[in-house]
Specification:
Number of strands of chain A: 12
Number of domains of chain A: 3
Radius of gyration of chain A: 26 Å
Oligomer: homodimer
CATH class of the largest domain in chain A: Alpha Beta
Distance between the termini of chain A: 68 Å
Strand order of the largest sheet of chain A: 2-1-3-4-5-11
Shape of chain A: elongated
Chain lengths: ~325, ~325
DNA sequence: TTGTACGCGTTATCAC
DNA sequence: GTGATAACGCGTACAA
């Protein structure tokens, strides 16, 4: 690949002139400018971002550390992050952690070494103190996690979303409601569990129970099986995410239990699948794409020192009512 | 952040010694090594990959140019690419093109500037000549596309996969078979269309028709609606991908047509959704994760000049039979 | 076994 | 307006 020197030689000027021409910084005569441009074109010159980064200390890239891009909720976020980044001239480095704390740390260090200008950290479970220590001042925006110590984040209120979901099950007449929870160490799962509890406790005459899941299909399936075969099966199930809600449907099919007739079901996330399964799943919309987009926007604002920028953004969870909670005669 | 100079000063040695210690290149006395290590630790030193890249001309990153990470098939590929890359010390830059040729070009140039060591290009529709010209020698591996001019690629034979799918529909007794095709400018879609045609033409007494889709839900839905409301509706439908197959199910539900009783359905890709919808969809497995993984592995082999490495890999498509083609009395 | 000096491609600060 | 020149942080001949 051609360097700035090659261009300078061909255009018969010094490298500094070429640099000025490229960056529109400082003076450069019209005819000289044209000559430089022609040379650039002829050599198919592309400025070297690495060398640029070294001197300017700006690499034009940000790190995206995410549990798993293959997970539909996260891949929406990833897309949002990249869209906003590229629109502002930034490039995104993708890192998958599988929620593994070691990998998360490894990636943070790696990103430091690569001189990313900032990080969007999605769905992290690392304690914020540790994070802050690790970061060493590197700008970061948390996504899908409500911050305590850290100042910038985009999240939606899982507690409220879960409350809405549970409330809706009560509205359609459920008295015995089960929650299939997410992993214990997940802040989102914890918040949803709390929202569920609050809804249950606010309403007299409604009974709640919690079955442990893991946000994955298998965990949801096992939990649903246990619930359905218990002495006193629930009339409504609130699954902590759509993936597990889909599993509930499969378990119900297996046992000949019909949804929503025999049991009503609510999920969480609104992954596209939830709309297309049968019955379609009533769920709490998370707007992953927007979350990613906002996180990215926020990080860029941070980088460009626009201190007027808001540092946190809470997205409203909204309930989407579909077939899985339809009442016969409504 | 601390630099190599800081470490050198603290350890009372020269920068070159520190460099040698870090990279285990050249001689360095045991006690000196320990001193350097201690200094590194104390300063929380992290080698600067940018500076390193400048001198070594190796950035340790590869570009992943992909139509859309939010699309489940591609997000699987992305995950595979990243897994293999990070396992070998490489980092992945994510680029979404939405199949837009301009964006693809833009990203290729951007990646050149960033000095990525190579590119995994997924599902591209740019003519290979143009690509080769654009690349200017930058190593590349095509994924999900059979190469002509370019030497390295990972793909699965879509023609064969489509043939299998169509054959299966005939096996379960369909005589009038419709294919909902993908976009005309997609090589995969074209290959699938050809496989469909071949299967139909090889069998006397079987009638085929093609409806235009676009690989998206909406296109599949519209096409299915047209097929179902035509004078002579099909007995079997082969949708060019699972997303459109899901749409076919929705359209059928809407019209009170039952699958597989009234019409049998086969999809393509085996995205996770296809297993969880009702009825579950018979489909052709693509193994996106493996494809990504292989593509990455191949690119790295290329970069490391392991010329013994195979340059192309064709993955066998396999048929997964599920409910959507179940015969009543089988 | 260790240190000096140069270069990687670019930008910024100066003289001219 | 333009051109040397010194950084940026690191790897590596080469000399010591």
């Amino acid at each position: 690949m051609a360097t700035i020197k090659d261009v300078a030689r061909l255009a018969n000027v010094s490298v500094s002139t070429v640099s000025r021409a490229i960056n529109h910084s400082g003076y450069v005569a019209k005819d000289v400018y044209d000559r430089v441009l022609a040379a650039m074109r002829e050599l198919n010159y592309q400025p070297n971002a690495v060398a640029r980064g070294l001197v300017s200390r700006k690499t034009g890239s940000i790190g995206l550390i995410i549990p798993d891009v293959a997970n539909p909720f996260f891949s929406d976020i990833a897309r949002g992050v990249e869209d906003e980044a590229i629109a502002n001239g930034y490039t995104v480095i993708l890192c998958n952690t599988d929620w593994n704390l070691q990998r998360e740390q490894m990636y943070v260090r790696l990103m430091q070494g690569k001189w990313v200008e900032g990080i969007v950290l999605v769905g992290s479970r690392t304690p914020e103190q540790e994070l802050a220590a690790l970061l060493n001042g590197l700008p970061i925006v948390l996504a899908d996690r409500k911050p305590n110590l850290l100042k910038s984040a985009v999240w939606s209120d899982n507690e409220v979303g879960a409350y809405l979901a549970t409330q809706h099950l009560m509205d359609v007449g459920c008295r015995k409601i089960a929650h299939i929870a997410g992993p214990e160490d997940s802040p989102s799962a914890t918040a949803r569990r709390m929202g569920f509890r609050r809804a249950i406790e606010e309403q007299v005459g409604v009974y709640g129970t919690i079955a442990q899941g893991n946000f994955r299909f298998d965990g949801g399936y096992d939990a649903a099986m246990k619930l359905f075969t218990a002495d006193d099966p629930p009339e409504g199930i609130f699954a902590a995410n759509d993936m597990m809600a889909v599993a509930v449907i499969q378990a119900a099919n297996r046992l000949g239990i019909r949804i929503p007739r025999d049991v009503r079901l609510v999920g969480y996330d609104n992954i596209s699948m939830s709309e297309y399964v049968y019955p379609s799943i009533t769920t709490v919309e998370q707007r992953g794409y927007d979350m990613g987009r906002e996180a990215s926007k926020l990080l860029l604002a941070l980088l460009e020192q626009r201190m007027d920028a808001v540092l946190t953004k809470e997205l409203e969870p909204t309930l989407l009512i579909r077939q899985s909670t339809q009442t016969e005669n409504a």
